[in-house]
Amino acid sequence: MLAKLTSKNQLTLPKSITETIGPVQYFDVQSRGGQIILTPVRIQRGDALRAKLAELKIDAATIQAAVAWGEPDKKSLAKPLSEKMPATRRRQAPSTDAANLKVSLTKVFAKAAKR
User: Fold this and answer.
1) Which member of 19, 82, 98, 108 lies 3.0 to 4.6 Å from 71 by CB, making a disulfide possible if both were Cys?
2) Which domain holds residue 65?
């Protein structure tokens, strides 16, 4: 069977070949002795998350710094929200947003670490 490499460096695999390996989106690609070797890879969600975080150079310290940055100053929360803002500008307390972000990020990292 022949497969053509396009000008955009794309290669279409014959359907008869892909049907034998099942539903796969990613392949490990290696070159050995003038041959291209494709090995099907099934990426888990946790693996995809870790890969994306690594690609963006986001580590646990970066997440902690972002959460700390998003947390409001404790002194600014001493007064009730209604006293700090005019009635037309009232919104959810900033501390709630920061707390929700912190909880969400903690859950994401806990799930990723388990896989």
Assistant:
1) 98
2) 45-114
